[in-house]
Amino acid sequence: MHPDIAWAYDYPLREVAPIAGMIAFYNEKLDIFVDGALLSRPHTIFT
Amino acid sequence: MLEEELQANRFGIFPPAEFWDSAAAVSSNEPDVMFDLGTAAFMRGRYRRAFQQFLKPAAGSGHLEAMHWVARRSWNEGDEPRARLWALRAAESGDAGEMFGILASSHAHAGHWSEAERLAWDARRFGNDDALFEVFFRCAMDATAGQRGSTNELWQTTDASAILRDRFEHMVVMNLVDRWGMSGTTAMPDENEGRLSPRLLEDEPLILHPRNPYVRVDSLRCHRHIRVELDGVVLAETHSPVLLFETGLPTRFYIDRTDVEFSHLEPSKTESVCP
Predict the structure, then answer these.
(1) What is the pTM of this model?
(2) CB contact, 8 Å: A37 with chain B?
């Protein structure tokens, strides 16, 4: 089990309204492929 | 007239780059002032500037509290060697609180709760309560998530709950406010009457802290192909993500719930606030 790997905002700030209800995964903790290319895992305060 | 007042007000809240630059130039020989400027910048969301321009130089000049900040920042960024280095320097200057704190944090990170707790109490002996808070908070989170251990034993064998009560109450208040639909509003119990009073920026609720005016956020729907994997297991795959760009952070890929494989996911109790 991996804790806290994704998040969502049901009521986001109006500036980012399009993300309401959608799910995002931590780039820091998972393998994310964009158009088939694997992204490197960045090192941030959320690592 | 009104325009001038609003401009002045905004300037007070968000000083321009020139202010910070000249303040740093004028105050570079005064670690106390540099530290105050650094924490002021931090509280305005200017994290990078706070550390690069003020807190690191202040720490370098031997300001103990600045060393704590830099050590803690390094730890939060995952740079444990640097965190230990600064904590050690603080210890050499006569304050071992942060060194015990970093050690406690690293044991808590590994799930070694009894060692973490013991070191956190050592940190407290040197005036550093942060580690105790982190150890108990992390332990509570893991217990909630069914990860490991139980906080109950820790709570019963120590009086940490009393020491940390104020800080936990603050978090509970924030969660309560969240549930009332004032999503993420920073509210503090009113000092006099114990009521919740949201902090305002003009007439809008202030969320955590004023936003850094030099950070731009864009959210754009697109048709890129995004696949999210963990240990080779596909957790989500979509051809219509929303890309969220935010200055200084990696691009975040928001995915429609219908494209997420929920059979591999369980709800978390973690809640946080983001300005």
Answers:
(1) 0.54
(2) no
